[in-house]
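Reminder to self: keep the SMILES exactly as supplied, no canonicalising. Ligand is fe (ii) ion.
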Amino acid sequence: MPSAKTRPLSLVTEPIKPLIGSCVRSDKQDLLSGKFAGDIRELLEQRGVLVFPQIHFTDEEQVAFTNTLGKLEPERNSGTVFKVTLDTKENPHSAEYLKGSLYWHLDGTMNDVPILASLLASKKLASTGGNTGFCSTYAAYEKLPAEKKAELEGLRVMHSVWATVFYYEPEPSLAKLQGMQAIGERELPLVWKHRSGRKSLIIGCTAHRVIDMSPPKSTELLVGLREWATSEQFSYSHKWSVGDLVMWDNTGTLHRAEPYDLQSGRLLHRTKLAGEEPFA
Ligand SMILES: [Fe+2]
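Structure tokens returned for the bound complex:
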């Protein structure tokens, strides 16, 4: 660890890909001190995903670090730290619901104000697979041709959790469907105009139909935008090592877990930053 004299005065970072992702190599003590919190927030908004390799935060340190960056959003069933796993023994409440996380999405499309960011710390690896994929919906929007941007202007999309069930269970029981439908639906703009002036796309597996558009046209548009936004230039797939912490800007990225052996015990600990900006 560098001494106080040699300790860097600014955040130590390097880009991962031209349009998404930065690696942060500042040491744990500097990160926990909060002195770079403003720089981290700024970098997060610019780069979408920040990777802190091998930082090995304990749960307490992860919570403390999250608190330096904004307001920690408590987890529904488990206090401040949530165990992300598809193992029903570890996570009896949410393992089933988390199956939808294998498909591109942003968190909180059913809420007025989606969470600002999530922070995931790797505790146990999958035996194979299990990367987390990210793509920048800011960069994907910004790189669209002007005529496509004009076509998207003003469009609204119905989002629902129930529609995502069909991604992993094509023939659900009626009771299961009704349980998911009880969560409700929400109409959102396709293009999110942020307070900063930047725009991002609100798409992903919860986006199930464009309002006032025929079903084939609507599906064609949403699939085309998903394919564009998740293409190589806008996306990054993080291969985990135990001890890595990855945080992402939930308001300008999509994410997904990549397939893995569900019996492998893959485990990530998550904290969240409360949302600060409504969808529109
Ligand atoms: Fe998610």
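Points to follow up:
The chain has eight helices and 16 strands.
The mean pLDDT is 93.
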